[in-house]
């Protein structure tokens, strides 16, 4: 029997890297892991609506760095950096409230995503936003796939919605695919995202796969 494996985890160490990286950290493993999970969950709620592609954490002996990739950096940075300062202070207070020591210097880097339509997470958030605005789900899927497939580096897009849609009383699954999605090819650069749209009748799960070609040179193209 086969099992469905997350495309990201399936390619760790081959064409992908960990989203939480520690360098020369001598403190307790349990405490660091708890802090990373806490920050990931907090930022997911705090930055909702900012179209965040990914969040990464880098720990070293002196610096604790959070890297945020988003298509709306101005929403996070704020005017004159006020948003960044407030976000940094809130994270420090959160760690102290959970009794987790943060002895390193906290730095937050915000990177802009140049092509948001080719990012699976941002595409899933756009679809969820359209569904929450009561737009027809077939039109939302078609429009998003056309925008993503129009990018030169995208070779395949697949979108799956599951839940109560179109005013029906029973949940169902709708899938639309364009191009190729070679899930079993480990060198295939497949971006995957799962997001939820919250509607009055319940949640609608949004899954997006975006295939961006194969990666052959491991040393030069390991992605985060």
TrEMBL record:
SMART domains: KH (SM00322). Pfam families: KH_2 (PF07650), Ribosomal_S3_C (PF00189). GO terms for molecular function: mRNA binding; rRNA binding; structural constituent of ribosome. Coiled coil: none annotated. One of its GO terms (biological process) is translation. GO terms for cellular component: cytosolic small ribosomal subunit. Keywords: Ribonucleoprotein, Ribosomal protein, RNA-binding, rRNA-binding. InterPro entries: KH_dom (IPR004087), KH_dom-like_a/b (IPR015946), KH_dom_type_2 (IPR004044), KH_sf_prok-type (IPR009019), Ribosomal_S3_C_sf (IPR036419), Ribosomal_uS3 (IPR057258), Ribosomal_uS3_bac-typ (IPR005704), Ribosomal_uS3_C (IPR001351). Residues 39-114 form the KH type-2 domain. Part of the 30S ribosomal subunit. Forms a tight complex with proteins S10 and S14. PANTHER family: 30S/40S RIBOSOMAL PROTEIN S3, SMALL RIBOSOMAL SUBUNIT PROTEIN US3C. NCBIfam families: rpsC_bact. Belongs to the universal ribosomal protein uS3 family. Binds the lower part of the 30S subunit head. Binds mRNA in the 70S ribosome, positioning it for translation. This is Small ribosomal subunit protein uS3. The gene is rpsC.
């Amino acid at each position: 029997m086969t099992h469905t494996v997350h495309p990201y985890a399936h390619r760790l160490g081959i064409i992908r890297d960990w989203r939480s990286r520690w360098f020369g950290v001598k403190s307790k493993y349990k405490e660091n892991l708890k802090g990373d999970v806490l920050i990931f969950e907090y930022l997911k709620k705090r930055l909702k609506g900012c179209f965040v592609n990914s969040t990464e954490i880098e720990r070293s002996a002196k610096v604790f760095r959070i890297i945020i990739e988003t298509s709306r950096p101005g929403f996070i940075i704020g005017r004159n950096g006020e948003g960044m300062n407030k976000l940094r202070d809130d994270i420090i207070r959160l760690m102290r409230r959970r009794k987790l020591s943060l002895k390193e210097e906290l730095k937050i880097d915000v990177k802009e995503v140049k092509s948001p339509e080719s990012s699976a997470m941002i595409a899933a958030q756009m679809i969820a936003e359209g569904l929450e605005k009561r737009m027809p789900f077939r039109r939302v899927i078609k429009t998003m796939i056309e925008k993503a497939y129009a990018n030169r580096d995208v070779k395949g897009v697949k979108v799956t919605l599951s839940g109560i849609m179109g005013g029906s009383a029973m949940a169902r699954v709708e899938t639309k695919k364009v191009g190729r999605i070679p899930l079993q090819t480990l060198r295939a650069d497949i971006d995957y995202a799962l997001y939820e749209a919250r509607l009055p009748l319940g949640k609608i799960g949004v899954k997006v796969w975006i295939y961006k070609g194969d990666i052959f040179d491991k040393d030069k193209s390991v992605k985060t």
